[in-house]
Amino acid sequence: MNPLFRKEIFQLLKIAWPVVLGQLGHVTVGVADSAMIGQTGTIPLAAASLANSIFILPLVFGIGIAYGVTPLVANAHGQSDLKRLGRLLSQGILINGFVGLVLMALLFLLRPLIAYSGQQAEVLELALPYLGILIASILPFMLFLSLKQFAEGLSDTRPAMYISLGANLLNVLLNYLLIFGKWGFPELGIMGAGYATLISRIIMLFGLFLYLLLHPNYAPYRVDLLPRRIEWERIHRILSIGIPTGLQYLFEVGAFAAAAVLIGTIGAMPLAAHQVAISLASISYMAASGIGAAASVRVGNAAGRKDPIGIRRTGIAAVVLVLALMGTAGLIFAVFRQQLPAFYSDDAAVVGLSAQLLLVAVFFQFSDGLQALALGLLRGMEDVRIPTWIAFAVYWGFSLPASWLFGLHLGGGVVGIWIVLAVALSLSALLLGWRFHSLSGKALHAQLG
User: Fold this and answer.
1) What distance in Å separates the CA atoms of residue 113 and residue 124, rounded to the nearest whole number?
2) Domain extent at residue 120
3) Closest CA to 52 of 126, 108, 127
4) Tens-place pLDDT, residues 420-441
């Protein structure tokens, strides 16, 4: 193996493993929520699936906006521009705080419309108040992301990981206490899971804020932790990456959320099975997106140095890592497809249908991981507009109508909807991968003359 390529894989892993563990920690919270809520019954599990499917839409848009800071920070870090770095921190905090408030207000206003989505009355009765608690967690989470994405742009990924994992362990403990009413705490059921999420996200924010405030490496930026003025030009620069990135996530996650709503019209049992399978599939996806986030930082650094060879090398190394990761995940899903759903539910029908869905997930592991990686690579090159149109065409132009057609109209059911999603992920991976290959190749040829 070429020494430079081996070094690139090492550098990617050095940045990626804390991000991956942090991402997996967030997913683990969702897995723990679903597993613990599932022990209280199929109806609460279906309600959690419905609420999370709606809540995730504005949240991932906000996450995408927060991600707009990272490639700019990585680029400035590659040029050792401390002044620009501090301003990116302060303006990122302003943007994400404002976006968090807007998303909260929007969800509160739209929440009553869920009653007209065709879901079972028992599911709606639990989903609406649970969603209300989740909405309150958006602002602290967005502010946490402001600090996290800044630190990751500096390749400092471990603190956010440690804080996230600690808060996630607390979330699981609070789930146990509040869902089931242990140790003298009230038995709140699904609502207890919502309160646990809210508390853990507040603690994540304060933990990372204290780290940046006290660690000597961040001394040049402490004055920027409390923004003093609005810099419209810098805000526009961040949003020019953040908004398209948010839309990319919105289109993709929106397709899966719409799939959950469609499945919910079939019945509570298929919706519960979908929640189980998508929770498991999200574990490998988030790990791949963590590698994509690390690759975005490395590509941003290389772009700041005007090093197209480095950009290309990062892309190849990241593809190798993602293929190894997703191949392993697919093998696990295939071998343990009957055992894994049993951690979520003791309903034999839910477990059996979840196992079928995991077989579909085996086939879309590679495409899911590669499309997540390609988005990160292109974001590092600050190329976000064309990928946004690709996401719109694949997920809303193809996936949404095809899910309705094959899942409901032609009777394919939940399995048919999942097959459509697998095809959409494959199309996305192909188009985004070709986009990165084309852009990085042009940059390389331009430098070599």
Assistant:
1) 11
2) 3-448
3) 127
4) 989 999 999 999 999 999 988 8
